[in-house]
Amino acid sequence: MKREKIACHCKNVNYGMILDAVKGGADTFEKVQEITGCSTGCGQCRDFISTMVRDILMFPEDYES
Predict the structure, then answer these.
(1) Cross-strand partners of 13
(2) Residue 1 falls within a domain, yes or no?
(3) Over the stretch 18-50, which tens digit does the pLDDT of each residue have?
(4) Whole-number Å distance between alpha carbons of 36 and 16
(5) Residue 28's Cα: distance from chain center in Å?
(6) Which long-range contacts (CB under 8 A, 24 or more apart) does 24-30 make?
(7) If exposure means fewest CB atoms within 10 Å of the residue's CB, which of 13, 15, 21, 23 is most exposed?
(8) Does pTM surpass 0.85?
(9) Is position 42 within any domain?
């Protein structure tokens, strides 16, 4: 996973920021949204980021550096 790849263009939130939020204890999309500001613009990234958060929580070994 490329940490610098943008997941939320409106708020310039990248994959690394989402991963860091989850690893820091955010266990729901809403908590990640609160920490990063993602999906507070147009909202088109909501489904993608929700799925990403779920996957990070379900398969943490796939997201280890």
Answers:
(1) 8
(2) no
(3) 999 999 999 999 999 999 999 999 999 999 999
(4) 11
(5) 10
(6) 26/53, 27/57, 28/53, 29/53
(7) 23
(8) yes
(9) yes
Residue 12 predicted with pLDDT over 90:
yes
CATH of the domain at 21: 1.10.10.1100
- Cβ 38 vs Cβ 26: under 8 Å: no
Other beta carbons within 10 angstroms of residue 60's beta carbon come to 12
Domain count of the chain? 1
pLDDT score recorded for residue 65: 61
Distances (CA, A) of 23 to 28, 33, 41, 42: 12, 14, 24, 26
The pLDDT of residue 1 = 83
Say if 11 falls within a structural domain: yes
